[in-house]
Amino acid sequence: MTRRTILGPGDDCAILSPSRRPQLFTIDSMLEGVHFRLAWGPPEKLGAKSLSVNLSDIAAMGGKPIACVINLAVREGLEARFFDRLYKGIRSVAERYDTDVVGGNVTRADRLAITVALLGEASRGVTRRDLARADDNIFVTGTVGDSSAGLAILSGKVSARGAARKFLVERHLNPTPRIEAGLALAEIKPTPAAIDISDGLLQDLGHIIERSHVGAEIDAATIPVSSAYRAAMGDDLSLALGGGEDYELLFCARSDLSERALAEALGVPVHRIGRITKGSRTVIRGADGTLAPKLRGWDQLRAHG
Ligand SMILES: [Mg+2]
Predict the structure, then answer these.
(1) Within this chain, do residues 140 and 79 fall inside the same structural domain, yes or no?
(2) 245 closest CA partner among 84, 30, 85
(3) What would the pLDDT profile of 34-61 be if each residue is shown by its tens digit?
(4) How many structural domains compose the chain?
(5) 94 lies in a domain?
(6) 80 CA distance to ligand 1 centroid (A)?
(7) pLDDT in tens, 69-106
């Protein structure tokens, strides 16, 4: 346990020492049959992901995670060994990101669900969704589309072999919350707008656009995709634009900040994918400056996914 936890699990409540900084509080659930199937991976990875998706929300605000509580909805047919392994995965991620698991609850249900409520605190600026301004550049960390390509592989909708398959499936089962990158973003003045990519690049950009009352222009040719994504999907960017659960950070920063300077500050690859405009529309341009045909179907593809 960290110094912030006065009393961990075992009493009616955990006791945490007060924070002088603004506190961030978030919750997320992973539901069997909706967000995962047990056949897709080991319980350790399921546990790890159930905490990582919450950590990603703290990362999106530029915060530092502090402590979490967990509710397990347990169905019949799962043994104690399964839950030991699930908790092992949760604990490994909690330790990696200095987060205390300070309490839990178990309920019976007809399907397995893992719900995590996570408390964090702001570091410097809070990288909210409503901070984008016209002429900001739009950046994304890492690569996008890997997780949903991995999901498509697990669901038998896309085929891939060898290292590409392994990489994409791992990105779906065990995403990396960008905590350190988020903390570095929060140091930048003026504070950038940011969001984590959970629903898909375009949809999450839409949340920034809406909250900031601005528009956006995206250059499809600059969307960063991995070589594994290319191996599985070719030139099809639909999952990179519309697929969710990458848990990378999408952010908008003033135009004098270069990709290189940002990558160095954040400690992860950073790519510029477009810019914020006045108005309220999001325009996606292909290599020839018009909407690329392969992009038109991305929303339908998502709806059928
Ligand atoms: Mg989020």
Answers:
(1) no
(2) 30
(3) 999 999 999 999 999 999 999 999 999 9
(4) 2
(5) yes
(6) 31
(7) 999 999 999 999 999 999 999 999 999 999 999 999 99
